[in-house]
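Q: Given only this backbone (238 positions), what sequence would you predict?
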């Protein structure tokens, strides 16, 4: 039998052992602000300097040499390099650890945007961005000042790549959900959409909200669970 079309969905839990905090750590607080209060278009309109500080700190973290892809990111790199059917890695993460573990792959889709990109709200251009962003930073393309924003999908905004994701969900026969609490839609709804059509596997530190919708759920740290499950999948289908 040939390998089944695959979707892997990842969340903050896969990057936790690389040293990046998950969203709902620390009671979901950052400098006494609820994360939802710095990750909305309304928050950016009300206090852009605060929102820039939040994302500048997280962008700077990615430049720290101590922050590297872990065994789970690397195992997924192996899985995607060897999978003999259509495969899409949909990540909710805005870090670049999957990118580093599977460089140049066009199977990776950042549905919630990327820390290392900015977008100009005046001219619409997206570009790679490594340093800090402030309310005075001019857009290198159109010159407008104060119009650059992190290329991040905030609460209330439409995730990126939904057409491609919908197409992949139609064809998907094997679904892995890794390191996500299952609280944020539309990603949290993929497993229910695949009921009866795809084999559904959860790999997470603890049961997610939608754990009961998976046929198989293994609970523990991603760096242990993911390499083992990838090895099993490649032994069967690789
Ligand atoms: N290995 C596996 N899973 C882990 C690990 C680990 N080492 N550490 C934590 N987890 C699990 C947690 O148990 C939790 O269920 O990862 C999950 C992380 O959940 P969240 O912090 O809610 O992150 P995520 O699901 O990615 O959040 C979705 O919410 O804030 C928004 O846009 C943001 O993309 C984010 C979205």
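A: Predicted residues:
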């Amino acid at each position: 039998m040939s390998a089944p079309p695959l979707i892997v969905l990842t969340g903050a839990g896969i990057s936790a052992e690389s040293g990046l905090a998950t969203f709902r750590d620390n009671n979901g607080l950052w400098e006494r602000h609820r994360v939802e209060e710095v990750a909305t278009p309304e928050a950016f309109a009300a206090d852009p300097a605060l929102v820039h500080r939040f994302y500048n700190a997280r962008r700077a973290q990615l430049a720290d040499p101590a922050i590297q892809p872990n065994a789970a990111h690397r195992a997924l790199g192996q899985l995607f390099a060897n999978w003999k059917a259509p495969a899409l890695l949909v990540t909710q993460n805005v870090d670049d650890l999957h990118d580093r573990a599977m460089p140049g792959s066009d199977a990776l889709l950042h549905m919630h945007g990327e820390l290392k990109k900015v977008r100009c709200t005046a001219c619409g251009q997206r570009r790679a961005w490594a340093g800090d962003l402030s309310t005075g930073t001019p857009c290198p393309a159109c010159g407008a000042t104060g119009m650059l924003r992190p290329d991040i999908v905030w609460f209330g905004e439409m995730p990126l790549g939904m057409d491609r994701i919908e197409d992949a969900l139609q064809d998907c026969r094997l679904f892995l959900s890794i390191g996500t609490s299952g609280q944020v839609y539309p990603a949290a709804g993929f497993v229910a959409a695949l009921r009866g059509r795809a084999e559904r596997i959860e790999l997470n530190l603890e049961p997610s909200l939608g754990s009961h919708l998976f046929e198989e759920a293994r609970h523990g740290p991603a760096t242990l669970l993911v390499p083992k499950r990838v090895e099993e999948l490649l032994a069967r289908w690789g």
